[in-house]
Every structure is written in C-alpha cells, then in structure tokens.
Amino acid sequence: MEAVTLVDQSAEVALQHVLDLHRMMRDQRESSDPQVRECCRLIHELVGDVASVRNAAYLLRKTA
Predict the structure, then answer these.
(1) pLDDT value of residue 29
(2) How do residues 9-62 score in pLDDT, each as one tens digit?
(3) SS3 sequence, 34-54?
(4) What is the CB neighbour count within 10 angstroms for residue 32?
(5) Contact criterion met (CB below 8 Å) for 56 and 10
C-alpha cells in the first residue's frame, strides 16, 4: 500500500471520528462554561486540520 493511500485512509477515519464528536458538541457551543466553549472551538479547528490532511493526500496522489 502506498504511503499516500495510508495517510488518506487514516485521515478519512480520523475525520469521521472528529465529525461525530463535533456533532455531539454542537449544542454546547453556547454553553456558559468557557472550557466547554473552548473545547467546541478546538474540535471545529481539528475538523479543518484533518480535512486539510485529506486534501494534501489527494493532491499528492494526483501529482504522482
């Protein structure tokens, strides 16, 4: 298996997990607890980071 394929598959699984967590925390974004709000913000950021890894793997595969 190519390294790019492995990265893409791993990122796909990670993205699904973090999206599940993001959905669970969605209702907590307006929480009065600053730690909960910060957790929601960080989860949202993580979704973008993992999506970026998948996009990078796609671009690597496309240029190879």
Answers:
(1) 77
(2) 999 999 999 999 988 888 887 788 999 889 989 999 999 999 999 999 999 888
(3) HHHHHHHHHHHHHHHHHHHHH
(4) 6
(5) no
Distance, CA of 21 to CA of 40 (rounded, Å): 9
Asked if residue 43 lies in contact with residue 49, where contact means CB atoms within 8 angstroms, the answer is no
The pTM of this model reads: 0.77
Angle at 25 between CA 19 and CA 28, to 5 degrees: 155
Q: Note the pLDDT of residue 55.
A: 93
Contact 64, 11 (CB under 8 A): no
Calpha distance 28→13 (Å, rounded): 24
38/41 Cα distance (integer angstroms): 5
